[in-house]
Amino acid sequence: MGMKPTEGTRLRLRLILLLAAAYGLIGVASLRTAIPPGYTAPMFPSAGIALVGLLLWRKGWPGVLLGSLIVQLVAGWQSGVQGAGWVGALVVPVGSTLQALAGVRLVRAWVGWPNRLDTPLAIVRLFLGVVPVSCLLCAAVSVPVLTLVGVIPAQDAVFNGWCWWLGDTLGTLIALPLMLAWFGRPHIEWRARRWSISVPLLFFAVALFILGMLVHRWETLRVQSQFTRDAGQIEQMVRRRLDAQLDVLLALQQVQSISPAADGDAWRRVTQPWRSRFPGTQNLGWSPRVTDAGRPDFESRALGGAPILSRNERGGLSVSPRRAEYFPIRFIEPLESNRKAFGLDVASWPVLARAVALAVKGETPVASASLRLVQESGRQRSIVLYQAVRGPGRQSELLGVVSSVFRMDDVLDSLLPRAARHDVDICLLDMDAAIGSDRLSGEAGCERPEWLQRHPSQIARIDFAGRHWSLRQRASAAYLAGMRSWLEWATVVVGLAMSGLFGGFLLLLTGYTRRVETEVTDRTIALAHANSLLQDQLDATRRAELRVEFMALHDSLTGLPNRGRWLAAARQALLDAQREQRHLAVLFLDIDEFKTVNDSLGHPVGDLLLVEIARRLVIPLPALALLARHGGDEFVALLPYDDIGEVNGIARRLLEVFLAPVVVGEHELHTTVSIGVALYPEHGADPDTLLRHADLAMYAAKAAGRDNVCIYTPEMNANALERLTLEQDLRRALADDSAQLLLHFQPQVDAVSGRCVGCEALVRWQHPQRGLLMPGEFIALAERSGLIIPLGQWVLAEACRQHQRWSDAGRAIPISVNLSPLQLGRRDLPAHVQSLFERYAIPPGGIELELTESTLMDDSLENLGRFHALLAHGCRFALDDFGTGYSSLSRLTRYPISRLKIDQSFVQRLPGTAEDAAIVKATLSLARDLWMEVVAEGVETREQRDSLLAMGCHIMQGYWFGRPMPAREFAVFASGETNGVGAAQPD
Questions:
Q1: DSSP assigned state of 322
Q2: Is-contact 366 377, C-beta < 8 A?
Q3: Single pTM value for the model
């Protein structure tokens, strides 16, 4: 049966990609030896790969085209080709493909194919006829086009064309024997000759490569040495020119100090010799010190009534504002080209003011950062030198500053014609300037590190007038062309020619000595291959068994023993302890507030936290201890001990490992652990009993404030029973006697007007035996047991019912209801809320759902959908206890939050605590920018109210305004408008 068309297409595509990859990888590697501009290589084996590839499979010509395109794109990128130069990236692949097809045609016509190439005539025809002739085609097509578009200089066209032909010819002579040895047909004929051809030819190629590298290194050192000398000469000329600029300024200082110029003509005569001697000097100026009191007289006498000017960052001029002193330009030469700067206060612009201040403070010239002059008509950057001028004597007063302005491009252009070689690229940078404005002279982009790559280069530091400059020099293409030596090329050409001849010799030699593999050898290889596969299967099976065994006894996340492994080891340890009369301790560890981390930052962060905690817990435990992950965020340890003090010490060291924060990604988490301890034999004789008692002790440690250690006592059983009883009572109250549950309402007041603008619904439990219980006594229990779902539904329904009663009485008051994350996670929540709102005719905004920050961590589409469904039913959302969780502020923009509630922990220490005040102000600012309201919780004093009002927070809630109260009392409170505000003092 024939191959399916789709399978044939996929096979052809794979072969094309394979040929393109081989051509491209070898071709790109060959570019490392290319001569500038990087298109012509002295050896290009990809030409031989293309010829053999099309000999074996003529339909693979798209692979040659694609591979050549890859090489040309890399060559163009390395050579910095731009614009029309990229035409070469299209022309050269066409030439390469035509050359390979022409070579195949010549092989079939002159040599014959398939051919074992084991006769002298066939090898001579191939090596001295087909290869040199066919390799003329790509060079004849590509070099003229690349010269026409400007990639190859016209004067180098002949040289590049010859090198191109030579590189393809020699590359084919070397690659052809290797390709045939590995891929020639028939395979059985070439397989026996494979190593006999490949190893000697590769060895010869490596030796030639090493020789070429040595010659290349010699040439590189020669060029680098010459460049270092030329660059050093240029550096010395630059330094001397800059020193001369300083000497001019110091001379002007002496003139102005001893015999100052009286007018512009005198200044012209003084400065004329220096201006003509040092080209590139924009101007030499004198700026006297003028006080504000003397400004009118100076403007009238020196400026002809014109005002003193100041400049802005863009070079615009305006009348200088009044200051204590000025340094206006009084004399400037040449005047005609710098008239725009006449009367300009050089201290009016910060860039120049800093240089002037440093010059006045010291005694040496000071250079400014580079700037564009107000009189600049081009794009050059200029430097201003300032030197303070004082009167004769040590304590003489400041007379002013002399200045020298020079344009950097003009200065360097005046130096280079005198250099030994002026085809060196120069870049001058100001290392003290900000990035983007540090280039003083040179082509765009010369400040980047890559400007110096792939060229001989040199960097020199120049300290000039208080600034640190960097003089960068690199050899240009013209420089390298002028330094070109034929020694390296002659070595490469001779060596490659010898490699080609050696390859032909190997073909001839191995053709006479080829061997045919016997059937026994084939069977031996097949058997060895089968044995290898069988051994691999056995090894894989054993590894899988070990992995399954490990996973059965260890926790997959932390790698610690799991509960089953620990229980088995604990039973054996107890038997040994009973026999040897030893003591054992069981430590039950639970991470405090781990659920908050999972809810706030997500389970991936929680898992990483558990891995780090497991690593830390192992450190303080003795060698004979057994630590295991019991489940979730719980760990259990079994360890022998001699006295109870030893157990306490180990437990304390376990607490101390949590003093340092745990860094998980970008989060720095501060965690603690609660530890319960049960002792053998005092507290139990089997692992289950010891675990249960250690668990009870752990809960006692949590009740004692967390981050604590408790040792089991019999009274803890009673406490556990009490918790269980309370849970059962709450379950019965929700199912059969909801009258035990009450809603109290705490007012939310506009502190400016005193008007009650809303309330928060808070649940109470009127227990038949225990009396009135506050939420802190049963809400945590409800969350652990799952009863928070029916409890939350009752609170929401009762709040809707009360809202309807108040509305019917003519007092519609918005009610805030706390919503548990477990409630929000239920898919039926939007439908449940909709039914309540329809039953009690709740208007939009009548009920506000208060959420914690952990709720926002789940930004799945399903969670966002529930938010928007509730919003469509008329709910508003408030974010409770804002600032105390781990959530990202960016989530505020994704969820329809209407109000932020500042947690009372930030309000309690107001006023007087700068940190809490800053947090409150930041929250208010954030809320204003996001169009949210803010409610401050826990306001208990007048001072707290006044402090919040001063920050701009108007809506408040707390004991200062009113405690939570039954619905009837709240209605009286709310109807009294301002009555009662501030009257309810905290107990």
A1: P
A2: no
A3: 0.41
